[in-house]
Amino acid sequence: MWGTIVGEEWINLILAPVVCQICLYYNELFPPFSRFSVKEFWLKHLQSMLCAAGILVMLYLVIPPPVTGLDHLWWRLAFFPLILIALRLAYQALVTSRQLDTPILILGSGTVATALKSFLAQEGSWGYRVFHFQWDLASPNKVDDQMENLTDFVKRQKIKQVVVALHDRRGQLPVKSLLQLRVQGIEIVEAVSFYERVAGKFCVDWMKPSTLIFSDGFNRLNGIRISKRISDILFSVIGIALALPIFLILPILIKISSKGPVFYRQERVGEKGRPFMVMKFRSMRQDAETLTGPVWAQEDDPRVTPLGKVMRMLRLDEVPQMLNVLKGEMSFVGPRPERRLFVDQLRKKIPYYDLRFTVKPGLTGWAQVKYQYGATEQDALEKLQYDLYYIKHLSLLFDFTIVVDTIRVVLLGKGAR
Fold first, then answer.
1. Structural domain that includes position 338
2. Alpha-carbon gap, residue 41 to 96, rounded angstroms
C-alpha cells in the first residue's frame, strides 16, 4: 500500500514539470530563448500553462492522484507555473542584459572573419560577446608586437575562446601566441568548426576538401545503419497502422474536391543516386505542370487545391511516403529527396551537393526543421549546409531530436507550401 502511494507521488511529482516543459517547448520557449517582447513573453507562457493544465486534467483522469496528498498536489500545481515563469523571466532579463554572454575573440582580417562577426551580430541569442583582433603579417617588424598585444588583450577581456578566422593559415598563424593561450586553458577553435557548432550547419563557401576529409564525424558504422533500418521498419509499420483513418478518409475527400488520381507518384533521386518513385496524396491540380513544366512550389502556389493547402500545412500529403520507408527507399530522417531535373541543375552550381546522396532521403530532416521551404537555388544551398551537418553527426539520438522538432514545426504550421 505504502509502495503504491510513494509510486503515485513520484509519478505526479515528475508529471507536471514534464508536461509544462513540453508545452513550453512547443511554444518556442526553449534555449536559446528568443528575445520576445514583454507582451509576447507573457502571452506564450500563458498559452503554455493553459495547454499544460488541460493535458494534466486529462492525465489525472487516467492516473488519479493519491487521495492522501491531494491537497498538497493542487497547491504544487498552482505554484509551479508561477515559480517557473519567475525563473524564466529572471533568465530572460540576464540574457537581455548580456550578463551570461561568453567573451570570444575572432582572430583574422579577411572575409571569413568579417562574415563570422556579422553572423554573430545578427544572431544575438547565441550568447557570445564578440571581440575582433585583426592579424596582419604585411609588416614582419610588427609580428612580435602583435603577439604581445594579442596575449594582453585576451587576458584583459577575459576571453574564453579564440576563433581563428585566417583566410590562409600558412605563414600567417601566430603559433607561439596561440600555444601560450592554449596551455593557459583558452579554447582555440577554427572558424569553420566554430560556425558549424553554433549554427548547426556547414558553411560551404568557407570549406575546403581537407575540412571534410580530416574532420571528426561522418561515421557509417554498421551498427548505426542496422539500428536505423530497424527503427525505420518499426515506426513505419506503427505509423501506417495509426494512419489508417487518413488512408480511408483522405482519398474520398480528394476525389470529391478535384479531378484526378488520389495518389501522386513522382521520380526522385535516392541513396547513391538511385531513382525511386515517391508516393504522396495528390495536393495539386491534375494538370499542375502542363504549361510550366517542373518548377519548385511557391508560396500561395495557385496549383494547389483548397484541400491540398490543408494537407500540406498538416503534412498529410506526405503520409504515403511511409510505404517508401517500409520498402527501404527512404528513411524517417534524412535529406529530402529531389527530382532528377533539379539535381542535375544543382550539382553543377553547388559544391559538395552529391554528398547528400550518401544517406537515404527522409520524410523529414535537419534542413526541414531549421530552414524554410526551399524554392530557389540559394535555398537549396542553405538546405545542403544543414544536410551535411546531419550526415556528419548522424545518430539515432539526433534522429529522435529531429522527429520531435518536426512535430513542433507541423503543429505550428511552419514552412508548408
1. 222-412
2. 13
